Amino acid sequence: MIKGKAKKRGGTKFVLCAIIVILIVIIFVEFRNHNNIQSMVAQFFEECMKGNIEYATEKIPDISKSDRIFIQTLSQRDIIQWVEVGLVDPLPKKTKKVSISLGINNNEYHTYIWVKKSNGNWVIKDLPKLETLEQAYVVNQHTKKNSTRFELLIGEKRRKLFCPAIVQKDYSGSICHLLVLDNQVADISPLTKKTGTKVLTVRDNQIEDAKLDMLDLSPKVCVYQHKNGEIKAATLEDVVPGMSDIDYYITQDTMSAVVIGTHFPLDTIRVALNTTGFKGLKHQRVDISSGKELVVEDKVSNISHIIPPNTTVTFQRMDDGILWTYGDEILLSKINRLHISSPQDQPINVPSIERGNDGFTPAYHGNLEVSKYEDGLALINELPLEQYLYTVVPSEMPLRFGIEPLKAQAVAARTYAIYSVMKSGFRFAAAHVDDSIASQVYNNTPAYPLTNQAVDGTRGEVLFFEGRPINASFFSTSWGFTANNNEVWEDSITKKFPGTPIPYLQARSQTPKVMMYPDNEEEIRNFLTSDMPEAYDALSPYFRWTARLNQSQLKAMFANNLPLLEKSQPEYVFGIDQKSQAMLSRQPFEIGAVKDIRIVKRGQGGNAMELEIQSNAGGFKIIKELNIRLLFKPTDDASLDIYLQDGRVQKNYGLLPSAFVYFDILYNDKKEIESLTIYGGGNGHGIGMSQYGALGLAQRGYNYREILSHYYPDTEIKNILD
Fold first, then answer.
1. End-to-end CA distance of the chain
2. Cα 21 to Cα 28, 29, 419, distances in angstroms
3. What is the DSSP letter of 283?
4. DSSP β-ladder status, 303-307 and 313-318
5. Which residues pair with 576 in a beta bridge?
6. Of 159, 168, 466, 520, which sits 20 to 30 A from 591 (CA to CA)?
7. Model's pTM, two decimal places?
């Protein structure tokens, strides 16, 4: 018994000794691990802060995007000043937590990193989560006890963050750069702010400001807008020429954020002026003069020159600026834009442009701007909206139509102008609209008392739908029906065709007692070959028209126009396999003899949407009404003569007057087209208000409000000056 107890005590001692030995070994190993880990982590941070990015990334086998941001930030010593490695998790694990302290702007932040064993060596598994918020709008900032809370807007995302310290300066309403460590604000600094004067040009990579000149945009520029008492995310599409309530925020000489205000003046419009004959916006030279004194100003350099009365000033583009001369003076302005104004508010003549059928010299109210534009000059006219309408209305509608149609035209033109200002399709040229039919014709006819009366009698009145100004499209003459917008135009955003329907721009009958839309080719033919005197548009010479073309004319037109259309819109004009209808690439466009022409798809209002051509060389498809009309554009070898219903003939017309057409074909013995008679109706795209229709409605007793309600149903008139 005694011997047995001794043996038991000896075994216990052995186990205890073994445990102690194992613990000593573990402690030794962990002590060595602790030293190795501390040494590895310390060297990692030391190399990071030296900018040795390659070494740092090698120590993280599974490096993440967050890890890369941390390493990059650490290499910038101006953000994180020092790092101190603390305690290592003492427990024997394959993954260990290491405490570290970071010195950021003289404040100490405590966090952790994780390390792991890999191929016998300790490497970094995870670094602290570090984010850099580059263009954050500080919506609110609150201090509570010993901490600060931020409410931020970053692009379209809202975020609330906590800072474990009191931030003395209030950054509310500023754009800031934030350093966020483990979801806590470690550093905040405001971006440099420049207060804008007036936005002129807006492009994808630049904004031109009247006094700050060209500002380069960051590829990731953020735009914010004050709206209805809130700050919201916006886009560059919301930055409109003429806008003055704007601030720019700069990072390293590049504009990284823009903040725009709620107020935008809708009483002023900027018009890009075309050359003589509306041949384009690029002027080779610009001449101006006035019976009164003029001021030419370089607003960037704050230099101005006074021009005596009755003196012509000539501007020309040079590689290094704008050369301008008057009298014996020769000046070179090495900036992008010159501003011309009349202190006595007198109109400014531009003799380098001719307008109207009689070739008169146009005079422009408001201010002019001359700027460098591609390999020429751009000419912009900024003026009050109501003044602009004084020469838009007579340029778009004849005086003989009378006061009610002219009032309807004034409201439609004002609405279209406001819609265009907000859309700013000419922002690349520092304008809202141009002065041609691409927008609405301006100053092609002098102002008249009756048209001025129409403008003044509707002053400030604009058509709205669901709280927004409408796209008040108008055209000359309907064929008895208007068209659906989506069956004529592609979607302005997606560029898909058919486009998106707009409720107030839908097909409607313009012929009393005729409410059914023609739904087959025979009905279309019968409708187009009848006089329809009861139709609202019946007084227009273009209400009914015809054109006749032979085989040689068709071949000449198609051979010239198909390649041009295919080049500009390849998704809508292309070759097809005549059996399978599959799209084919057919270059060059060999036409051969034209065998057939068919309208294969129409809109609800009767407009041609798709047309197919069959020829000896193959088939072709043309989609969209304007492409179909341009297919018949005359050439040197083929004239397009339009026979109007009043007996007149419009020789060599530029394109088919409309796409409301029927093709009557005579074939020869070879089953080829011998002659084509085109029966057509109307003039223009057919969307919105018909101007001749407005005349017809006025003759039936409609006032201008009733005319507008007829063409733009479910809209309301509001006065934007109230």
1. 115
2. 10, 12, 87
3. B
4. unpaired
5. 583, 619
6. 520
7. 0.82
